[in-house]
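Notes to self after the call with IL:
- keep both proteins in one doc
- input above output, always
- annotate only the second one for now

Protein 1:
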Amino acid sequence: MRIGLIRHPKPLIAPGLCYGRLDIPPHPDVDIGAIAATLAGTKATTLWTSPALRCTVLADAIGAVTGLPPRADERLRELDFGAWEGQPWDAIPREALDAWAADPIGFAAPGGETGAALVARVVAFHRALGDTAIVVSHAGPLKLLAALLRCRPIDLFAPSPAMGVVDWVEEAR
């Protein structure tokens, strides 16, 4: 199975803000068409996307180039950061960030989602993924999906994939 993982392009939001589930569009300076054009001629049979606007705009452009209709899936949404959403990262109390760092699987920001819930969503998506596909999503789900596809340990704090760049992964068996 060959899967193209692509993180949404740069979003239209000020740097340094927590924006996990906020539904914001891609930044107007991003050339969505150029990103989509890199997938022309792909052999993918399915195009999956997070329902977030910054993902669906790119997925629609990819669909126009590949002929694949985008299929939105809630399991591909970013981690829900609850009350932290829209807040500057440096305004979040240090104790809260330390608690998250100490237990990324069990911790949830106030009103948010645990890392375990994110892992469960992505594992369920991975099991249903099937054949060759393109997946447009966010840093959190894509880090997990890449680890699952490569049969590597899950690390919620692994480096984030670059925005708007396709990472083709051959699933390890």
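Protein 2 (the one to annotate):
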Amino acid sequence: MKNYKSAFHPNMEKIPNIFRRLPVQVWYFLAAPLFFMAFLLVYCPFDSKSFLDAGRGLFYFNVSILFSILFVTLVITRLAFHFIFRGRQLALFGYIGWCMAEMLLAAAFMAIFMSLISQPHLPYFWSLGRCARLSFLILSYPYAIITLSLFLAARAEDTELKQDKMLRFTDENMKLKLVVASSSVVYLAAEENYVRIHYVEGLKLKDYALRNSMKTLESLCEGKGLVRCHRSYIINPSHVKALSKGKEGLIEAEMDVDCLPIPVSKRMYDNLSSLL
């Protein structure tokens, strides 16, 4: 997931995965119709009361029918959106186009109803124009609010995910000494009373000597995807190029950075190889 610098960053190309989740679709087909009905009842915009009255004193009845039409339309289109795009990428402009299309579709069904119930009967395309104006201008508010909320939620998830992938190394006195992304750590090696942490920064392999024990750091590292491969080594499987036998028949892990092969004990070989 990309790091969203703002809610609507101009360089954003793809919508976040949160938009495809089924609970999100429920927000659209519940909140949008309710807002649409409430807005009509309270404000009656664009002289909509005379239009929805249909010349028969049916304003409140017709508003409830339009609410039902919009609700059913959004249930169908939102479920279709979930199943069509749940495993696919969708550009932001494509998503905006989908939203506009479902608003237009709802307006088309509303216009059919209004043209049939009005006395005298109104031309369909005239009714479509009125319904489309109501649909687009009223629904733009809940759509914008929900969409903005989803971008902010995606940004919060992205930040939380990045924090979860950070390794915070403390010394034996629990003082924070090094913070580094777990994906950047290549391996840890025990050195008497220290553990030397080898990690990539930029294009360079760096190391940091931390006064702590391998046993203490093992549980921290395993929670971030690193595994114990030897009594003196903890390794990051994502940096392992291959496992092979060395000159003395010992198993070694060849890394994707410029460093010596890491020894792998026979007892821990199966676990490491299953992660490659």
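Annotation: The longest helix spans residues 124-164. Strands lie at 166-170, 176-181, 185-191, 194-201, 204-210, 227-230, 233-235, 240-245, 251-255, 262-264.
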